[in-house]
Design a protein that fits this description.
143 residues, alpha+beta, Arc Repressor Mutant, subunit A, two-stranded antiparallel sheet, 6 helices, 18% strand
Length: 143
């Protein structure tokens, strides 16, 4: 979803069942969840009450900053081990593309770079993800 389409459908919000569905879909894949939350955090860092300036995330920033557990090939053998590694830029692009198609994110073209932001619908899903996270940590503390 580009900026023009985002502005066209800006006022449309998700219903509660759709928010739950998107939350469940995003939480099933660790990498998608980390990328989606990273975009939300970048936007939250930039929000200032005085200005309308927003800072989004770029694909290169996401690939550099996020580290995930994944299978890494051991040199000289056909075996793999689980290790923390940075994401491949192409993998990040594929996940961003799916988030753009769902309408949870949109992008603005700045030169050759796409700056990715969360839509209002994406922020609704992020709030739901955070509330579930808080509930899970509170239930663990109460045990």
């Amino acid at each position: 979803m580009n900026n023009a389409m985002y502005n066209k459908y800006k006022q449309i919000n998700l219903t509660a069942p759709l928010i739950e569905m998107y939350t469940e879909l995003i939480e099933k894949d660790e990498v998608t969840r980390k990328i989606f939350v990273y975009i939300g955090k970048k936007m939250a860092e930039s929000i200032e009450p005085d200005t309308q300036t927003k800072i989004g995330a770029t694909i290169n920033n996401i690939a550099k900053d996020l580290v995930v557990n994944r299978n890494v090939r051991i040199r000289g053998s056909a075996k793999f081990k689980v290790a923390q590694a940075q994401l491949d830029r192409k993998h990040v692009e594929r996940i961003i593309h799916s988030l753009l198609l769902t309408g949870l994110c949109y992008y603005e073209q700045v030169g050759k770079t796409k700056v990715i932001y969360c839509t209002d619908r994406g922020i609704q899903v992020l709030r739901n993800i955070y509330s579930k996270e808080i509930e899970a940590t509170q239930s663990l503390q109460n045990m």
